[in-house]
Each structure stands twice: as C-alpha cells, then as structure tokens.
C-alpha cells in the first residue's frame, strides 16, 4: 500500500485525477478524472452494475433527475436534519466540523460539551470558539426565471424558486418505487439500483477524493416484507463483502465492520453497519449498509397522498415495504483500489512504481509496441497486432515513445497487466514478447494465442 501523497502524485502525473478547475486555481472538494482515471472509474461502476443488477433477477435500475421537487427533501428529513455541527474559531475565523477536531463526540454535540473539551484551533492553536451551529449540507440552486435577488424580500417567491442538488441518489429511487412496481410488477423482495452524482456542501473536504463536495454514489434500495428485514440485511452484508473482495480485489483484512451506535446513525436508520477500510491515512468509512425501515416510503405516502403499499403476490398481504440500503461512494472505492494496487519494488537494479490493478479494472489490458519506432516493417506488424487486440478486448493502448524500458515503467505505473512487443523475430515466426507487469517476466507467445 502506498502513502496518500504518493498516490496523489501518481494520479496527477499519469492522468488519473486532477484538481477540479485547476487552471483557475482549483475549487476545494472537486476533482476531475483524466483519461486514465475515467477508465478506471467506469470499470468500477460497470463491475458494480453487473454484479448487483445484471447478474441478479431481483434488481432493476433507474437513472433519476438530480434536481427534484423540493418536497422530496422535506419528506426525507434532509431539510430539517441533514446538517453538520459547524464551529468557528473567533481568533482566525477558520471553520470546522466540531466532531472532526475533537475526540469522543458525535454529530449531535452541544456547544457546552464542545467547550468542556478545551479543543485548540488546528489552524492558529488558540482556544476561542463561537457557538456550534447546525450547518445544512444541501446545495441550493434556483430554478426558472426567479433570480435570487428578486427573492430577497419575498420568502414566498424564494420558496418557489429554490431547489437542491440531491445530497444522495437514494431519494430518486424512493420516488420511483411506485413507477417501478406499476410497470415491472416485481416479486418481493426486489431492489432498485442507481448510480449518479450527489452533492454535499462539506465543511472541510479532505484526504484527496475521500470527502468531496461532489461525489458519485452507487446505491440500492432493497424492498422487503417487514418481518424479513434481518435475513435480507444479512444476505446484503455478505454480498457487499463478496463484491468488494472478489470482484474489486480489496483485501478482506483491510475491511472492518462497524455496527454504528444509535446516536451516530442517520435519522432514518434502525441499524447501520459501516464498512471501514484501512486507507493510507487511517481507517475511514468506505460504505454503509442501513436498515431504513419504511421511513422513506411512509413519508412519501404522507407527503404525496399516494399509496406506497404493495400487495404480496404469494400471501396477498398488503404492506408498505421495508428497506435495506447498501450505499457506496465511487471515489472512496476508487481510492481503496489505488491504495491496494500501489507498490514500489525493484526490477533488475532499478526501482519502480507499479500499480497492481486487477485485470478487470486496469484502464488498459494490453500495451502494444514495436521494438524500434524507426523500422517501418516493425511498426506495420505492431499496428496489425494492435488492431487485432483492440477488436478483441477494446481497452488496448499503443506506445512507441522513448525506449522499451521507459515504456515498461510507464505501463507499470498505470497498471497495464501485459506489454506486447513486436521485434525482428516476429517478422519471421509470428511470435511476440509478452511482458508481465507484476513479475516483469517475459515470454514468447504466438500472435494467434494472445
Ligand atoms: N443514501 C445513504 C447515504 O447517502 P451516507 O453514509 O451519507 O449514506 C453513503 O453516504 C456513502 O456515500 C458513504 O459511505 C461514502 O462512500 C459516500 N459519500 C458520502 N459522502 C461523501 C463525500 N462527501 N465524498 C465522497 N464520498 C461520500
């Protein structure tokens, strides 16, 4: 596992991740994925979709709008409770999440409890705090022709124009539950999955892509008969481990389950397990698995006046389903994959950085090169091999820059499992050199067998 600084530097150097709007000095909590990063990110998302949606017959996908009717967020409780404890240092004016700068307190900490801890400001070292304020993390925006300045003295107008960027993809699933039931007629239990952007005005984005203001979530709301929630929770818990370890390749000993105590759970949850991962900077939440009861569907039923009940096909019983929700951030999974893959070792006498990405996630599966760039017959043959491999695998890259050693170093750093080199022997016997990223060993292989 690499240090966070090494991973950040590799991500930038090789075109995985750049600071968002870097050319203008950046924007805190936003990140842009470059040519390599976007390939890795898409593969992670595709593997998740395949595992949880395509390979199962009890899951359906949706892709809901990011902007939703503001009543969504009233019903879900986000308008009232999706807030972090914000505290300001009166000396240097820095602002922090109180529970992130003091040990042993939760998100519901009061000003008195915080002051009793005599925390020093992490920026100026003084102890002079203002009161703790609840800071709602939803981003607001204005929809339609109502301009923010028009609404200043007119609360009614302001209400009309305000919308939020969704802070979780989950609500786009809940609001479509009835549509899915009425169009697909799924058997119980069944799940609805969604991947997409979520936005949170985090007080202090940090640790590279771990805590962002704009992130991508992959969420499932799994609807179950109320009395079966425990068995379905357990099945979902095991499925998460299987996916993280056997599809994504994370080490099982780096994943720890944390049964979240009541006072730390989200307002909707009766049970939550956080899957913690040993990141380079310490243990952090990778994903959550929550039992959301019928909290959301019942709230929607109340707020919209429309029935969210389901008639069980087997028992004929009518009920509002309960929900098990696995929710994972793509960025957190991306960082875990990078941390797991990053290694430094020696090949021959020289040191190298190598990204030991699993083959199913590597941005490129093969790199094809001619041994020498200035020999047209080698280039022509290598182009033929390249075209054939591309046709077969899709994600194959071409590299004829520098010398062969430099090409290997570069491909090691971006995690390409195999480098294929066309040389003079190829012209005689239609074999190529295939070099393995991890062992650096080279073997001769017939082109037809690649
Ligand atoms: N629908 C439930 C929900 O949103 P959450 O625990 O707030 O629950 C779920 O978020 C997951 O989304 C987290 O475990 C994390 O992987 C990811 N996530 C949440 N906030 C994030 C942020 N600011 N930056 C990156 N990922 C985030």
Tell me how many strands there are.
23
Proportion of β residues? 25-35%
Mean pLDDT: 94
Q: Enter the CATH topology name of the largest domain.
A: BirA Bifunctional Protein, domain 2
How far apart the termini lie comes to: 31 Å
Largest sheet: 7 strands, mixed
Order of strands across the main sheet: 3-9-10-16-13-12-11
Can you list the ligands bound to this structure? glycyl-adenosine-5'-phosphate
Stretches with pLDDT under 50, minimum 5 residues: none
Q: For this structure, what is the CATH homologous superfamily of the largest domain?
A: Bira Bifunctional Protein, Domain 2
Overall geometry? globular
Which structural class do you get from the secondary structure elements? Answer: alpha+beta
List the helices and strands and how they pair.
Blueprint: H1 4-13, E1 17-19, E2 31-33, H2 35-54, E3 59-61, H3 71-75, H4 78-81, E4 83-88, E5 95-97, H5 98-101, H6 111-116, E6 133-136, E7 140-142, H7 155-161, E8 162-164, H8 170-174, H9 177-184, E9 190-199, E10 214-224, H10 229-247, E11 255-259, E12 271-279, E13 282-293, H11 295-304, E14 310-311, E15 318-319, E16 322-329, H12 330-341, E17 342-347, E18 350-355, E19 366-370, H13 376-393, E20 396-398, H14 404-414, E21 418-422, H15 424-429, E22 431-436, E23 442-446
Parallel strand pairs: 3-9, 19-20, 19-21
Antiparallel strand pairs: 1-2, 4-5, 4-6, 7-8, 9-10, 10-16, 11-12, 12-13, 13-16, 14-15, 17-18, 21-22, 22-23
Helix pairs in contact: 2-12
This protein binds glycyl-adenosine-5'-phosphate.
The site of glycyl-adenosine-5'-phosphate has 18 residues, from strand 10, strand 13, strand 16 and helix 12.
């Amino acid at each position: 596992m690499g240090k966070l600084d090494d991973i950040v530097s590799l991500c930038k150097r090789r075109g995985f991740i750049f600071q968002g709007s870097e050319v203008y000095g950046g924007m805190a909590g936003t990140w842009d994925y470059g040519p390599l990063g976007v390939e890795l990110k898409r593969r992670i998302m595709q593997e998740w979709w395949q595992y949880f949606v395509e390979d199962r017959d009890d899951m359906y996908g949706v892709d809901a709008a990011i902007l939703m009717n503001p009543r969504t967020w009233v019903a879900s409780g986000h308008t009232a409770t999706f807030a972090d404890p914000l505290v300001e240092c009166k000396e240097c004016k820095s602002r922090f999440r109180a529970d992130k700068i003091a040990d042993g307190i939760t998100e519901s900490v009061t000003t008195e409890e915080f002051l009793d801890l005599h925390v020093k400001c992490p920026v100026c070292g003084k102890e002079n705090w203002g009161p703790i304020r609840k800071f709602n993390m939803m981003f607001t925006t204005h929809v339609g022709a109502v301009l923010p300045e028009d609404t200043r003295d007119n609360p009614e107008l302001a209400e009309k124009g305000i919308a939020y960027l969704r802070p979780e993809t989950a609500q786009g699933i809940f609001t479509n539950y009835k549509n899915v039931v009425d169009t697909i007629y799924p058997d119980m239990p069944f799940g609805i999955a969604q991947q997409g952007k979520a936005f949170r005005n985090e007080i202090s984005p940090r640790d590279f892509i771990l805590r962002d203001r704009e992130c991508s979530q992959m969420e499932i709301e799994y609807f179950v008969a109320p009395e079966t929630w425990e068995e379905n929770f357990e099945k979902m818990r095991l499925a998460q481990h299987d996916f993280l370890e056997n599809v994504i390749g994370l080490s099982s000993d780096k994943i720890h389950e944390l049964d979240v105590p009541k006072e730390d759970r989200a307002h909707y949850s009766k049970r939550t397990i956080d899957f913690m991962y040993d990141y380079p900077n310490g243990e952090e939440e990778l994903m959550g698995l929550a039992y959301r009861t019928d909290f959301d569907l019942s709230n929607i039923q109340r707020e919209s006046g429309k029935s969210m009940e389901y008639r069980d096909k087997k028992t004929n019983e009518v009920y509002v389903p309960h929900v098990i929700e696995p929710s994972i951030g793509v960025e957190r999974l991306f960082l875990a994959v990078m941390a797991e893959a990053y290694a430094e070792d020696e090949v021959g006498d020289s040191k190298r950085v190598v990204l030991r990405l699993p083959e199913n996630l590597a941005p490129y599966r093969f790199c094809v090169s001619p041994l020498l760039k200035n020999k047209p017959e080698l280039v022509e043959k290598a182009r033929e091999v390249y075209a054939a491999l591309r046709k077969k695998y899709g994600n194959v890259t071409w590299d004829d820059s520098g010398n062969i050693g430099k090409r290997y170093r570069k491909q090691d750093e971006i995690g390409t499992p195999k480098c294929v080199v066309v040389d003079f022997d190829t012209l005689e016997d239609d074999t190529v050199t295939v070099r393995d990223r991890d062992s650096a060993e080279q073997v001769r292989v017939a082109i037809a067998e690649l």
